Amino acid sequence: MRECIIETQDLVHTYPTGVTALKGVNLKIYKNDKISIVGQNGSGKTTIVRHFNGLLKPTSGRVLLFGEDTTKQKIGQMARKVGYVFQNPNHQIFCTTVRDELEAAPKNFGFSEEETKKAVDEVVELMNIQSVLNTHPLTLDYTTKKIVSIASVLAYKPDVLILDEPTGGLDEPGRVMLTKIIDMMIENGHTIIMISHDMDYVAENSDRIIVMCQGEVVDDGSPEKIFLNAEVLRKAQIEPPQITQLDLYLENGYPKEAILSVSDFIKKYINFLGGQREWE
Amino acid sequence: MKKPIIEVKNYSFAYENTDKKVLDSVSFTINEGDFVGIIGRNKAGKSTLCESLVGLLPFTMGGSWDGEIVIDGKSLNETKGAGVTDIIGIVFQDAESQFTQETVEDEIAFAMCNFGYSRELMRERILYASEACGLRNMLDRSPFKLSGGQQQRLAIACILALQPKVIILDESTSQLDPIGRDEVFGLITKLHAAGSTVIMVDHNIEKIAEYVNKVLVLHDGKVIEFDDAGKVFQKKDKLNAHDVRVPQVTDAALQLKDKLGFKEAPITLEQAKSVFAGYKKEGK
């Protein structure tokens, strides 16, 4: 049985404006999970993940991080365990050079100079950002800023990595790099929680999808199952990947498992299509 | 015969204090009423190209260039980049960063104020632009308190108020949720149907394939392809070699080409449904 590292118990969160963004959520997240949280804007995705590292406190209910109530832990300790990459890199970046930005978190967490250098060198190499190390991060283009913001959290290797809309503005090579990073983290035993609207990416890069709608979890399961639940998808306004939709159509809406990628689709249909008919 | 509205003639550009040509001998023509998608990996030169088309580069923001860009018959070299703001307008990726005013109404009026439009004309255009972008009942709201989709629509409204013939959207949907994204695509489709020329830079290949009629592929500052969307997306290997993918259904159809037998692979879900469905019946 895998270790449960984050648990929410009847979690309710009401903002000072009076909006109740979470209406009693019970959720367990296990070590090494590769999770995507999906749902439309305002469904509570960001609100819930901000409870995982204590950025927000429950209005009622509890959140346990590694078994301990988040209201009884220090923000700094929780941040060390749960790294959070913001959707908008402008909201996260605060140093005057990329190098400082990357060194900031490890230094704050008490890494020695040597450890900091090693950690930074590693992410720089991994994310191929040598050329911008002395640049002011806010002068970079959006995509590079985004990559720097991911790198700055990755540098201290938190147990849990939360990525809020990581693919926004990334091109194909950027997506490939992100996938490489996620896979590496998972292989090394970390836990990934991604918030995303990018269903193509979610379908191919999650083991578990949590669907949120109006402050509640409305579905939770493997991508192969989630993308078949037409009613929930409609309610949560989620559009499955194009290739998933094509398969759904060809199966008259009832395949056993949802197709998640073009290569899955090819495997399924290569021996299935007739190919005898003349083109009309 | 369609009338050319943008003519790019052997245009090259390098940023200030650099030698690297971010755009390298680029030539193409966009006609009035075209809906063009510009795709390519980051740093391919997409934004540089968009900023050059509106005269921001090199004339306002600097840099060295060669060749010529002609907008609706006006050579930007001759006008020094000026005189086209009412012909061609641009909406950036990060709409929020361009807002300066306290209300939606003032924001839409801002450019017109600067151009010295009369009060009556401004009033009329504010109503037109806010109506077109679905912001009519939000005129007194703060631009900073709108949702992402609303902010992008406001950025478009600001441009629309000037009634340009060409609208450029530079990754305007990449930060939006599916609802916000569909709002923007829906609005742009309406504007295109009403006769506007639209240029859209976007990484969402499936959406590009669904909406545009022409695709321009940039790589390392060079035009790799410029043709009808249906033709460009057939060239999967060439596009992949330049870090651009084709729509998922196109990819699948091309891989199953021997089984399917079509003249042109589908590029939208609807096209794919009809191509695949006919064959599946035979196969079963």
TrEMBL record, chain B:
<dbReference type="InterPro" id="IPR017871">
    <property type="entry name" value="ABC_transporter-like_CS"/>
</dbReference>
<dbReference type="InterPro" id="IPR003593">
    <property type="entry name" value="AAA+_ATPase"/>
</dbReference>
<dbReference type="InterPro" id="IPR050095">
    <property type="entry name" value="ECF_ABC_transporter_ATP-bd"/>
</dbReference>
<dbReference type="GO" id="GO:0042626">
    <property type="term" value="F:ATPase-coupled transmembrane transporter activity"/>
</dbReference>
<keyword id="KW-1278">Translocase</keyword>
<dbReference type="GO" id="GO:0043190">
    <property type="term" value="C:ATP-binding cassette (ABC) transporter complex"/>
</dbReference>
<feature type="domain" description="ABC transporter">
    <location>
        <begin position="6"/>
        <end position="245"/>
    </location>
</feature>
<dbReference type="InterPro" id="IPR015856">
    <property type="entry name" value="ABC_transpr_CbiO/EcfA_su"/>
</dbReference>
<dbReference type="InterPro" id="IPR027417">
    <property type="entry name" value="P-loop_NTPase"/>
</dbReference>
<comment type="similarity">
    <text>Belongs to the ABC transporter superfamily.</text>
</comment>
<dbReference type="InterPro" id="IPR003439">
    <property type="entry name" value="ABC_transporter-like_ATP-bd"/>
</dbReference>
<keyword id="KW-0547">Nucleotide-binding</keyword>
<protein>
    <recommendedName>
        <fullName>ABC transporter domain-containing protein</fullName>
    </recommendedName>
</protein>
<dbReference type="Pfam" id="PF00005">
    <property type="entry name" value="ABC_tran"/>
</dbReference>
<keyword id="KW-1003">Cell membrane</keyword>
<dbReference type="GO" id="GO:0005524">
    <property type="term" value="F:ATP binding"/>
</dbReference>
<keyword id="KW-0067">ATP-binding</keyword>
<dbReference type="GO" id="GO:0016887">
    <property type="term" value="F:ATP hydrolysis activity"/>
</dbReference>
<keyword id="KW-0472">Membrane</keyword>
<keyword id="KW-0813">Transport</keyword>
